[in-house]
Automatic annotation (TrEMBL):
Name under which the protein is recorded: Short-chain dehydrogenase
Pfam families found in the cross-reference section: adh_short
Alphabetic keyword roster: Oxidoreductase
Residues covered by region (Disordered): 1-20
Family: Belongs to the short-chain dehydrogenases/reductases (SDR) family.
Organism of origin: Lithohypha guttulata
SUPFAM superfamilies, sorted: NAD(P)-binding Rossmann-fold domains
Record lineage: Eukaryota, Fungi, Dikarya, Ascomycota, Pezizomycotina
Length: 300
């Protein structure tokens, strides 16, 4: 593993039997409706050198927060860190065997880390064998599909499990924050040429929902899901037309500043699920339909 650091330059369920200690109840009540910005001290952002990750990093820094970014390409990390005033580490989150040593180094260098943004993600087009679905001749490379699953699922999961012991042991009055970036495609897999990506984002959504429910009992870790719609980034770089998610080609797409403005509103108001543009309708459908069924099941 290569680790390079830039040099310095939840609502209470009142129907269920309570399993909270008085201290947990006090801490949970204090966080209800509180701005997430008030909870964040130092944030680790995966995939922070560009796109949504960089935009989130810049937003947090503008609020006076410390930010550490990580990613695969040192040259991009180095230039971004210098431009925005962050620290950086080189880490390919798909290589999950490297994560324990990375987290140990991170916590040694930044013991004030209390926030994780699981933002790094890969989207590749795959054509199911025998389907003849598109004219892109994408094929189905299993090694690339495995790497996408490692990046989009195993990386976030391993980082969460590695960092949660630190987050849950923070002193009284401090909270951990875990933010998982899913996608509208995790709610409705309408991008048919991306079956692996859609599945990984559905996993992120489900994992985040269950994680939030379980961690309510510890009451000092806020769990947030960000649900991006189509945003004008380089996510589609492996498609035949890598610009088909840009506003010039897709009027429903959001420019990064538009998207971040909506994310800022959600963080400011302390929302657990934050979306923008077309994503808001899908989140509302979940909340008013299966989400209610889930909450009923979670109370049993």
């Amino acid at each position: 593993m290569t680790i390079v650091q830039r040099q310095p330059g939840t609502k209470v369920n009142r129907k269920a039997k309570s399993t909270y200690t008085p201290e947990h109840i006090q801490r949970l009540s204090a966080n209800m409706g509180q701005s997430t910005y008030d909870l964040i001290e130092t944030a680790l952002i995966t995939g922070g050198a560009g796109g949504i990750g960089r935009a989130i990093a810049e937003n947090l820094i503008s609020k006076g927060k410390k930010v550490v970014i990580c990613g695969r390409t040192e040259s991009k990390l180095q230039s971004t860190a210098k431009e925005i005033g962050a620290d950086y580490y080189v880490l390919d989150t798909s290589k999950v065997d490297q994560i324990p040593n990375f987290v140990a180094k991170l916590l040694k260098d930044h013991p004030d880390i209390n926030t994780l943004f699981n933002n790094a993600g890969v989207q590749r087009p795959f054509e199911i064998p025998g389907s003849n679905f598109s004219n892109g001749d994408y094929g189905f490379d299993l090694s690339k599909a495995d790497q996408e699953i490692d990046t989009n699922i195993r990386g976030p999961m391993h980082l969460i499990v590695a960092l949660l012991p630190h987050f849950t042991s923070l002193p009284s009055g401090k909270s951990g924050v875990v933010v998982n970036v899913s996608s509208v495609l995790g709610f409705m897999p309408s991008s048919i040429i991306n079956p692996v990506y859609n599945g990984t984002k559905a996993w992120i959504h489900s994992f985040t929902v269950n994680m939030r429910t379980q961690l309510k009992k510890s009451a000092n870790v806020k769990v947030i899901e960000i649900v991006p719609p189509t945003v004008s980034t380089d996510l589609h770089r492996e498609r035949t037309n890598p610009d088909d998610n840009k506003k010039a080609n897709n009027q429903a797409a959001l420019e990064l500043p538009e998207f971040i403005a909506e994310i800022e509103k959600g963080l400011q108001s302390g929302e657990d699920v934050i979306s923008a543009g077309t994503g808001k309708a899908l989140v509302k459908m979940w909340d008013e339909g299966l989400g209610k069924k889930y909450e009923e099941a979670a109370r049993k």
